[in-house]
Design a protein that fits this description.
It is a single chain. With 390 residues, the chain is an alpha+beta fold. It folds into two domains: 165 residues; 211 residues, SGNH hydrolase (Rossmann fold, 3-Layer(aba) Sandwich), CATH 3.40.50. The chain is 23% helix and 28% strand. The chain is built from nine helices and 19 strands. The strands form four sheets. Strands 3, 5, 6, 7, 10 and 12 form a six-stranded antiparallel β-sheet that branches. Strands 1, 4, 8, 9 and 14 form a five-stranded antiparallel β-sheet that branches. Strand 18, helix 7 and strand 19 form a beta-alpha-beta unit. Helix 3 packs across helix 9, helix 4 packs parallel to helix 6 and helix 6 packs parallel to helix 7. The longest helix has 17 residues. The radius of gyration is 20 Å and the shape is globular.
């Protein structure tokens, strides 16, 4: 039986300072597909835009990892206008995509600022002047904001991936029984340090069987939207409880989910990211996590929950907040039956010699997010046997 299966997707939020000014340009999304298919369709989103986007056409093709076309392009019909707050799905086009191959989607944007998207590092988004959809050899125009993003990464001592505007989902028509695994999380997952090597493990263990869709948003909280005191308006997205249907439940191809949420509810209160009165009630926070797991399981999705890592070494970390992490984790472990499996992320990265601390060698410069070594430790701890079961 054929069905549409996501091969790539992201959770949209307001790009804020990382948005793109209006202009005539072509965006080319370059990705590696874990699954195969015989046709393609694409969802474009302007959900968090404040102005309409004027589209000049969409096409797709096979390519190499640099975005150089290796097949003829197939044109996909799309509306000429994408109003603020809306999304649209293109027509389907015949394109035979072998599992493990690179493909690209090129969109000509004739006008309108690009304000909706996410910062991701599991695909490349090339930008070219004018309508270059069918150009075999792409170039990539740098932006001054890329330098600002690099400076911000250095200042914050954390990775800020490149922004990918407009693109929401790329789906393939698959007849091989493939399905998708969604990672629904915050910046611990969005940055890709554990999700990307996890995806490689999935690709090697289950060739052509699963795609891994990272629908995580940096700074995202379970119980609250982006705080109004945070300078980057809307950047942390709407609360996880309210985006679950949009980013997970609407997709029937999802068979498994990794639910990695909660750390920002504990971390952000009393900082530039959140007011002091936004301290979470731990019972309400954990019940929110359990309710999302229950909704996914009710939709036939097998759910792997995660515990929280320690945050005391981060600039916003405190003993009080670390005690809250302990309370959350104890509740999650005690109620592990609320999930189909529990990835004890907190224990994986914990320093056995320093209570309430993560291993320093697993952390990046901000002493919160994982580095490559920490990401590999988490990815390698995931029991792939969980995904054997439908």
């Amino acid at each position: 039986m054929q069905q549409w299966v996501q091969t790539w997707g992201q959770a949209h939020t307001a790009l804020s300072a990382f948005s793109f000014a209006s202009g005539c340009r072509t965006l080319r999304l370059v990705l590696k597909s874990n699954i195969g298919g015989t046709a393609i369709r694409v969802r474009l989103s302007n959900e968090f835009g404040r102005d309409a986007v004027i589209l000049g056409g969409v096409c797709a093709a096979l390519c190499d990892e640099e975005g150089v076309l290796t097949s003829d392009s197939v044109d996909l019909d799309a509306p000429a206008f994408l109003p603020a707050g809306e999304s649209a799905v293109t027509s389907e086009g015949a394109l035979r995509v072998p599992a493990g191959s690179y493909l690209c989607v090129s969109v000509c944007v004739n006008g309108g600022p690009l304000q909706s998207g996410n910062l991701m590092n599991n695909a490349r988004c090339l930008m070219m002047h004018g309508d270059r959809r069918h150009s075999i050899f792409p170039d990539d125009l740098g932006r001054f904001k890329d330098m600002l993003r690099g400076a911000a990464s250095t200042l914050l001592r954390m990775k800020l991936p490149a922004p990918i505007p407009l693109f929401d989902t790329v789906e393939l028509l698959n007849a091989d029984g493939a399905s998708s695994i969604v990672v629904f999380g915050d910046s611990l997952s969005q940055q890709g340090f554990w999700v990307n090597p996890f995806e490689e493990r999935i690709r090697d263990a289950f060739p052509g069987r699963f795609s891994v869709i990272n629908r995580s948003i940096g700074g995202n909280r379970v119980l609250r939207d982006t705080s109004p005191v945070f300078p980057l308006k809307g950047f942390y997205g709407v609360r996880s409880l309210n985006r679950l249907r949009r980013d997970v439940l609407q997709y029937p191809d999802i068979s498994h989910a990794v639910l990695e949420v909660g750390v920002n509810d504990v971390l952000q209160f009393g900082t530039v990211s959140g007011r002091s009165n936004e301290k979470p009630d731990i019972d309400i926070l954990t019940q929110g996590i359990f309710s999302m797991a229950a909704e996914m399981r009710a939709n036939g999705i097998r759910v792997m929950g995660t515990t929280l890592p320690y945050i005391i070494d981060h600039i916003d970390g405190t003993k009080e907040k670390s005690d809250l992490v302990d309370q959350v984790n104890e509740t999650l472990r005690t109620n592990a039956e609320s999930f189909d499996a529990l990835l004890d992320l907190g224990a994986i990265v914990a320093d056995p010699d320093k209570p309430q601390h993560a291993k320093r060698e697993y952390l990046g410069g901000d002493k919160l997010h994982f580095n490559e070594k920490g990401g590999d430790a988490v990815a390698n701890a995931v029991d792939l046997g969980f995904f054997e079961q439908a």
